[in-house]
Amino acid sequence: MELKKLLKQHTVEKKVVSPNTTPTGSDPRGFITLNLLALSSSQRKKCELCDNMATLMCEQCRVTFYCTLQHFQIDKDFHVEICSTVKKLKQPMPFSSQKDTRERWIKQREFHINELFLYSWKKGQADLGKGLYDDAISAATVAYKYAQVLYGQSENVISPMLVAAECYLKKENIKQAEWFMARTLNIELNKPDIRPSIKATIRHNEGLLAMAKGDVQEALMNFAEEVYQATEEYGPTHRKTTLGFCHLGLLFHQTQKFDKSSSLFRQVVEIWTDFLVPNMENMTAVSVVPTIKVKNEETVWIQDSDRFDAQQILTMCYTNQKERYESSGTDKQDVTKMDLARTCYALSVLLLISKRPSEAEASANEALRYVGNQQAQEASFVKKLQRVVKLAQRMLAQTENQDPS
Ligand SMILES: [Zn+2]
Ligand SMILES: [Zn+2]
């Protein structure tokens, strides 16, 4: 909550950034190699990205260090964006007898730290959503560092650590993921009043970690707890519960408990369909009559993060349902053609909302093929699919008209 409020107050975009800070005559590589022998142990620094001892230093701010050229290069693109702000933090407190001069200096310093935290935290989340894991790690690590300065051991420190841990998991770097998770768990132990949604994310990452290590029981326990915590905060049929449900399904699928996995995937698809369809109606209601502009911003409910979640989760459901269905080629008790049709429908609605009309049309047509000779019994569902096809074609025609070529 606190974090959200802060983010609203400060929309720190690229203005923190002043990228072309390299003065002429400096090393184009942008770093200085440290002479380790000349440094006493107290002068030795840790790498910006890991716990190893630093051998390089950013030559601009001179307060950012790296263990190796590799870690310098991974962090470079992100660091350029915050380097000048970091540099400002280095300015010593003015030697002044005036109390307000010193107070101003302290205020300014806090402002810069806050700026750095918010900018990097937002960027870390966005990059994770885009699948840019290296960039997300750089940003999240910086956010974690400054969150510690600002908030000590609190929820706000956990969030960036979870982003970093998830990125390392995606990159299959178990050791680094464990490093961040261990610290997260430590804060969680000392702070029992953490919000359920954050606990849910912690359990999710722990579940992924257990899966990566092949510990199915441990993973199951964590995903079940994730669902429980997400339900605590959002309620049982909210889309935020579906990530946990979907991973439980995945584990049941892997352990051949197909009746369980199939009913979970079905439930997940249902929740997303209920969320996505009104969004599609809302969006197309505007584009059908182009003269009417959306007056009220609030009518747009879907966020980028929802879109990313939906894409990831529905694709996971579809892949598993299809695999199960195709393993024998006929309807099973647990996965039917209608299940596949319903998942394709949800995906087609999502694609339409994401303004990808040709893919949306293809997905809706795929659903129609699954419905096949059951068209008569499924008349109302077929109508919904035909509507997606129509909307997709209309959207395609509109974009072609707008395109002068
Ligand atoms: Zn390093
Ligand atoms: Zn720097």
From TrEMBL:
Keyword Electron transport appears in the UniProt entry: no
InterPro entries to which the protein is assigned, alphabetical: TPR-like_helical_dom_sf (IPR011990), Zinc_finger_MYND_domain (IPR053248), Znf_MYND (IPR002893)
Database matches in Gene3D superfamilies: 6.10.140.2220, Tetratricopeptide repeat domain
Protein name: MYND-type domain-containing protein
Top-level taxon of origin: Eukaryota
Annotated PROSITE patterns: ZF_MYND_1
Swiss-Prot/TrEMBL keywords: Metal-binding, Zinc, Zinc-finger
GO molecular function, one term: zinc ion binding
Domain MYND-type: 47-83
UniProt KW Transit peptide keyword: no
